[in-house]
Amino acid sequence: FGWPNVPLASSGPHYAMATTITLASIVFCQIGIVFNCRTDRLSVFKVGLLKNKIVLIGIASELILLAILVYVPFMQEIFATAPLGWSEIAFLMIWPPIMFLLEEVRKVLVRAKQKRLLHHKLTLVKGDTK
Fold it and tell me: What are the angstrom distances between the C-alpha of 26 and each of 29, 62, 69, 96, 117?
């Protein structure tokens, strides 16, 4: 059941839009995440945000395939998708930077923890107990 206790659509325009926005959300979140996959600790700004041409080609390919699934009529019928409007596209555009920044924050925290552990180990080796 949907909210509040209403049966969910199993077909029709609402189902097609739900399918489309779900698929597109996954794709757009992946775009934000893929930029940070080059390294698990270093900031992507240190290794180069746009230097990996294969990633850029992959993102372009993913967006082209998504557009085909969403906007080509016979593909809409096969995959039960619906065309996205500007408000849905604006909503989707929010997610790549959010996913990107969340991963950058995680990396900052990992680097800070590693630095603290290294400092602690060096302190123990030197015999300083401050």
Answer: 5, 11, 14, 10, 36
Share of residues in the chain with pLDDT > 90 (%): 59
Whether 103 and 33 have beta carbons less than 8 Å apart is answered as yes
Would you say 96 and 29 are in contact if contact means Cβ atoms under 8 Å apart? yes
State how far the alpha carbon of 11 is from the alpha carbons of 78, 85, 114, in Å: 13, 20, 51
- Is residue 85 within 8 A of residue 21, CB to CB? The reply is no
Over residues 94-111, the pLDDT tens digits come to 999 999 999 999 999 999
Residue 33 CA to residue 53 CA, distance in Å, equals 16
Can you tell me which residue has the tokens 């180069």? 48
Say what the pTM is.
Answer: 0.78
Query: Helices 13-34 and 86-126 meet at what angle, rounded to 10?
Result: 30
End-to-end Cα separation, the chain, in angstroms? 59
What does the DSSP assignment read for 19-43?
HHHHHHHHHHHHHHHHGGGG-SSS-
